[in-house]
Amino acid sequence: MRTLKMVVVGLGLGTLAMPVSAETLRVVGVYPAHNGDAAEVQSIGIEQFGGIDGPTLSIKAADALRSASIDGEPYFRVAPASVLRDGDAVLSGSVATDVDVYRASPKEVETCVKRDDKNKCLEKRKEKVPCEQLTLSVRPTIRLYSYDGVLIHDDDAESQRQVRYCADESEPAIDPMVDEVLDEIAARLRYALAPQQRAEDIRVLETRKGMEKEPGRAFRDAIAMTKRDEEMACDAFAALEPTIGEHVSLLFNIGLCAEAGGDFERAQEYYRRAIKADPSKSNPGEGLDRIRARQEAERQLAIHHGD
Q1: Which pLDDT score is estimated for 187?
Q2: DSSP the chain
Q3: What is the share, in percent, of the chain residues with pLDDT greater than 70?
Q4: 24-102+130-198 — its CATH code?
Q5: How much is the mean pLDDT over the chain?
Q6: pLDDT tens digits for 184-228?
Q7: Among 4, 10, 194, 236, which residue has the fewest nearby CB atoms (within 10 Å)?
Q8: For residue 164, which of 13, 3, 4, 10 has the smallest C-alpha distance?
Q9: Where are the domains of the chain?
Q10: Model's pTM, two decimal places?
Q11: Which pLDDT does position 182 carry in this prediction?
């Protein structure tokens, strides 16, 4: 059972995000693990971590690594270290968890101190309600060693959660916050050690500034076509190149079509031409970054599978 250094009460807040709709092309690719040194690792033995939250984190870490897959195939073989004696690496660690509560500035509330016979407030008074700030600190010490003792990966990054609450609010639940942070650490480990396969809807460039009237209309129609048939839209973009020429929007969109189709060489060519046509646009540079990342992922996968 967790104990606080002070008796406190708490408040939880959430936010909502609204979706944005736009003309896009779907790009599906594999992106690299953050730690390229882990590419050779195919099997990992998990030791039980130390600390009050260590066993929970070791289970979450095992689950996160076990969930890593490329084209539906598991990326790692994961098992307890006591069982997996022929593995490539062993994961060990511990977790230190602290909860500190400090006095925070009070909040001012207005309360009714006098009402009439119809319960209408006749007199109000401002009062100060004492408040506190809770800081949850979770400090992992995680090490991945090869079975011959070489350090492959380490993670000592502290994660925090802070909640400000006042005496007129409900008591905060610490365990859900800890669980959220442990999930975050486990996910961080998964993305550090294994590539990820994901689909992204990348926005096409739509600006027609500088295009002639008729080609501009055809370009607009090709943009609209991305909502119905991406392959047909890409054919339309390519067909417009002789007419429109070196326009950043057309060049970027052709490059994006090539990237979506896995033709990295063609995509890079058009992204570079788009940058030359209009250096102020960040989209082509981001495209080049994606391709470099995917090429690094291909290198990692080749090492992982011994190709």
Answers
A1: 98
A2: ----SS-----------------EEEEEEEE--S-GGGGG--EEEEPPPBSTTHHHHHHHHHHHHHH-EETTEES-EEEETTT-TT-SEEEEEEEEEEEEEEEEEEEEEEEEEEE-TT--EEEEEEEEEEEEEEEEEEEEEEEEEETTS-EEEEE---EEEEEEEETTSPPPPHHHHHHHHHHHHHHHHHHHHS-EEEEEEEEPP---TT--HHHHHHHHHHHHHTTT-HHHHHHHHHHHHHHH-S-HHHHHHHHHHHHHTT-HHHHHHHHHHHHHH-TT-SHHHHHHHHHHHHHHHHHHHHHHTT-
A3: 93
A4: 3.30.160.150
A5: 91
A6: 999 999 999 999 999 999 999 999 999 999 999 999 999 999 999
A7: 4
A8: 10
A9: 24-102+130-198, 204-304
A10: 0.82
A11: 98
- Over residues 141-158, the pLDDT tens digits come to 999 999 889 999 999 999
What lies within 8 Å, CB to CB, of 145 at 6+ separation is 89, 90, 92, 151, 152
Q: Retrieve residue 116's tokens.
A: 């009439």
Angle, CA 304 vertex, CA 56 and CA 68 arms, to 5° = 35
Q: Please give the structure tokens belonging to residue 145.
A: 């060693």
Tokens of 96: 């230190």
CATH of domain 204-304: 1.25.40.10
